[in-house]
Amino acid sequence: MHAATHHRDLYTVEQVRALDRRAIDDLGITGFELMSRAATAAFVQLCRHWPEARRIVVFCGPGNNGGDGYLLAALAHGAGMAVEVIELGDAPRGDAAGARDSWQRSAGIPRRWQQEALLPLADVYVDALYGTGLNRAPEALASSLIERINAAAVPVLALDVPSGLNADTGECPGVAIEAELTVSFIAAKRGLYTGQAATKVGALQLDTLGLPDILWQGMPSDAGLLPVMQLPPRARDAHKGDCGHVLAIGGEHGTAGAIRLCGEAALRSGAGLVSIATRAENIFALNSARPELMSHGVHGPQELQPLLDRADVLAVGPGLGQGAWGHALWLTALDSGKPLVVDADGLNLLAREPQRFSVPAVLTPHPGEAARLLGRTTAEVQRDRFASARELAQRYGAVIVLKGAGSLIANPDGRLDVCTWGNPGMASGGMGDLLTGVIAALLGQGCSAWDAARIGVGLHARAGDLAARHGERGLLASDLLEPLRALGNGLAHD
């Protein structure tokens, strides 16, 4: 088995350091050799991504990331490129000092960065300022340089991680490099796939530097990249009763659209039957727009109970509101003992009256809702999305979908997947209502809460990418319905 099998595994910075140390101590590969392999891998990607590049500037910090940069500069110089190296901070030590010596022997003296200096012209800038060890805002001199690099109309190749980005969490405590391409080494760092990383990493390439699979033995990954998952084909004698009956609960005055989107997404994702429990005033509009939805006007728990009795799975929250009507339906639904998906105002009510679930449950908060569920601020949730998602899963006994760029799916047992699909066009009203319906439909078709969340998040995000082929701006939640159907049947490809 080759190390490429680990390309879907995500690791913490501490774990990657341990792998690096194993390569040196157990496999006898020197730190300088690893640095040389990293520089070669990055230079190959530079030539592949920018084949016309003839002038490059490499920005080197004092650590091993800077060492990678010095060696890449030497390779570029040897290939006939015009290369300039600009240093930040103190002289490097250890292997990085040896890399700097290699550059000086091949090309000349690097130039120390001065805040008032102009950036040289180039076809490509190479960011080798900070590696995975930075977990704070860059210092003032480095921040000013990063801001200048970002402001220049020059594409940036980042080595291992864009400088300023926390490779463990995906947070930027201060300013960070905005790369067009990032080449990461040895193992995938989990923070490069979620949160603010989406605006910094650009295209992401992982190179395991030719290290053998034995390096990873006994080192479990912290998380994984969400794979493409499909439901098996239906039996030829299947009937609607085999495919799950979803009851979607919500649609307070003025929010009939939210519960319709939820219900229609459940239908398009394969639910055999979908009932809607909503305000009586919404029934005419729902029946006119989507007659396949079995819409019921309910005034309170007594009218909800017969619908609960017939349902297999509940989708609770889209357009529910937090008033007396919504609260009464929410409480009755949670007391029913049915598997469920909770979103939107269902989550806000849960934050006010916390409980731990004993039935299969999926909660789908955005960062603001997650903050309320944890009693924290949104900024604190975003500071470490991995820890936040896992804490929510533990606290509520449910599978958590922490939405956002690089959505996280966390299981109470500690498993966690990161979704790399989706696009900014999906930042529009109704997208969360769709996701609730998709996951509920998958629960109704026999998936576990964990698999329903993983498959549902993947289908939803991939459908968004298909729909965005006509442009991200102006993308509507309902634009995802046909791609959802196609993807769920294996009839469309990203």
From TrEMBL:
CDD domains membership: YXKO-related (cd01171)
Residues that bind (6S)-NADPHX: 64-68, 131-137, 160, 258, 319, 366, 433
Subunit structure: Homotetramer.
Source organism, top-level taxon: Bacteria
Cofactor note: Binds 1 potassium ion per subunit.
Keyword Lyase: yes
Pfam family, one: Carb_kinase
NCBIfam families: yjeF_cterm, yjeF_nterm
Keywords: ATP-binding, Isomerase, Lyase, Metal-binding, Multifunctional enzyme, NAD, NADP, Nucleotide-binding, Potassium
SUPFAM superfamilies (UniProt xref): Ribokinase-like, YjeF N-terminal domain-like
Family, per entry: In the C-terminal section; belongs to the NnrD/CARKD family.
Binding site for AMP: 403-407, 432
Domain YjeF C-terminal: 223-491
Reaction equations catalysed: (6R)-NADHX = (6S)-NADHX; (6S)-NADHX + ADP = AMP + phosphate + NADH + H(+); (6S)-NADPHX + ADP = AMP + phosphate + NADPH + H(+); (6R)-NADPHX = (6S)-NADPHX
Annotated function: Catalyzes the dehydration of the S-form of NAD(P)HX at the expense of ADP, which is converted to AMP. Together with NAD(P)HX epimerase, which catalyzes the epimerization of the S- and R-forms, the enzyme allows the repair of both epimers of NAD(P)HX, a damaged form of NAD(P)H that is a result of enzymatic or heat-dependent hydration.
Annotated InterPro entries: CARKD (IPR000631), Nnr (IPR030677), Ribokinase-like (IPR029056), YjeF_N_dom (IPR004443), YjeF_N_dom_sf (IPR036652)
Enzyme Commission code: 4.2.1.136, 5.1.99.6
The species this protein was found in: Dyella acidiphila
YjeF N-terminal domain segment(s): 16-217
Signal peptide from the UniProt entry: none
Protein name in UniProt: Bifunctional NAD(P)H-hydrate repair enzyme
Cofactor(s) this protein requires: Mg(2+); K(+)
List of residues binding K(+): 65, 127, 163
